[in-house]
Predict the structure.
Amino acid sequence: MRTSALLAPVLLLALAGCTPVVALQPADDAADPACATVIVSLPDTVAGLPSRETNAQATGAWGEPTAVILRCGVPSPAPTATLPCVTVDGVDWLRDDSGDPNFVFTTYGRTPAVEVIVDSDGDPDVDNDGASGLEALTDLATAVQRMPVTGKCVAAEDAQNLGG
């Protein structure tokens, strides 16, 4: 009886070590209360990938190896004509594909901003048939929608009409 009582904690530690913690850096404004609202609402799966434990405040990770990373509290981006804006389930995102197959999506019109990094290399679920990251953004939309909206993307022709 004593032997099994001593082995139980060791077995639990061994099982807990099967999925290592994802080491991330928190964003500068990770302590913003709006980020806490997002983080407690994150889904258990994103793009069909299971959630992973992270070591940094206001972060999330999915997949093993990690294919989707979320960081809340990044600086809100300024208007840009170089990055396309995509709207997914009511959330505007700037899409930076300069690191393809890694795509960085940053919320536009929400303060602080949320950044989602999608590594679509080698995982067909994350790639979503060439729409790199859209399935992940769809799965994260409900949590990110909890952030207050301070602006929204406009089409280039609409921006020209605003100025003239």
User: Anything to note?
Assistant: Helices lie at 2-16, 33-39, 124-127, 134-144, 156-163.
